[in-house]
């Protein structure tokens, strides 16, 4: 019997890149097809089972399943079959940077259109999979609002700060409506709202930008979560129960130097302005006091094992300081292409290598070895048993490891 039951059956989570945005060239991208996850879902989920991971972030591609208000969810049938076979619990991502061609996200009809889709998606998965049920209505609202609202990378291709602010509020309204629609179908459904951990600093020679950088770090970064939690714009219907579980994504490029136009400049690993991950996590915890996961994290290339070690050290330091952390999502499970260049990022647990017309999954052994070390350190399984859902994670094991290892916050990424 767990002394401190966690929300999920395993502490380590993974997931599959599932973006379906309209890119700068006005062409629809489908990262599920580009990584062949649609063709290899069965073996991809078997890889997770063999890693001792029983939870996966998985996408339902809204632009591809809805045509003029009619739904065809058969695209996710291979994933559902794989989940059934491998006993993997999904966190369904309902909007990953893409929406149908005929949708105007700035229209009054947008929240209702999204809610109808969420309701239909919930019915579809509930009829085919046992609970518990987890959903991410709209992935990374803050980042999506930059990409589509200020930088013009993806639809709706807006290019001003004002557009970004309007787009973000529209996405928050839709997310809140989506949560309510899902809970009409599954009242006990849990939500995981994902957004990046961000720290922005002024250039050393531009003290005049300190106020703007501070605002982006301590106000702008939190606004989407604040709206969903009902702390800001309460007229939109947010509440702590709608926010539910907070998923904070952590990547090296989340710590940046402010730029007045375009994306900010990522700080180099030796920059003395970097804040420890533990400190960033606690900014979120103190603001919401909701259960948390690290919603995505990964290093690149040969740095993957070191990145995981740093993330776990910082996470345990945060746990010892009182943060209610329920999981760490190693994302993605399989490699993904850089959106701009198409080159493989080598950030997955498995790399992808061409093998005829297939993309072979090649394990990153040092990364996996580091995962195994942490599974043992936290008293976690390394291979799933027949029923990974019969006993939740005992978070007391994680707390005990934090107290035993005495990790301290460290801003040194080396």
Can you walk through the features of this model?
With 414 residues, the protein is α/β, with parallel strands linked by helices. The chain has one domain (12-405): Glycosidases (TIM Barrel). Helices cover 37% and strands 16% of the residues. The chain is built from 14 helices and 15 strands. The strands form 4 sheets. Strands 1-2-5-6-7-9-12-13 form an 8-stranded parallel beta barrel. A 3-stranded mixed beta sheet has the order 8-10-11. Strands 3-4 form a two-stranded antiparallel sheet. β10 (255-257) and β11 (265-266) form a beta hairpin. The longest helix has 25 residues, at 161-185.
Question: What are its keywords?
Answer:
three-stranded mixed sheet; alpha/beta; 37% helix; 414 residues; globular; GH; hydrolase activity, hydrolyzing O-glycosyl compounds; hydrolase; 15 strands; Family 1 glycosylhydrolase; eight-stranded parallel beta barrel; 14 helices; TIM Barrel
Q: Sketch the topology as an H/E string, one letter per element.
A: EHHEHEEHEHEHHEEHHHEEEHEHEEEHH
- Describe the largest sheet: 8 strands, parallel, barrel
- What is the topology, as strand order, of the major beta sheet? 1-2-5-6-7-9-12-13
Overall helicity: 25-40%
Derived from helix and strand composition plus strand pairing, the structural class reads alpha/beta
Query: N- to C-terminal separation?
Result: 39 Å
Q: Unreliable runs, pLDDT <50, ≥5 residues?
A: none
Number of helices: 14
Q: What's the number of domains?
A: 1
How big is the Rg?
Answer: 20 Å
Under CATH, the topology can be stated as TIM Barrel
CATH architecture: Alpha-Beta Barrel
- Counting DSSP E segments of at least 2 residues, the number of strands comes to 15
Provide the residue-averaged pLDDT: 96
The outline comes out as: globular
CATH top-level class: Alpha Beta
Protein name: Family 1 glycosylhydrolase
Keywords: Hydrolase
GO biological process, one term: carbohydrate metabolic process
InterPro entries: GH
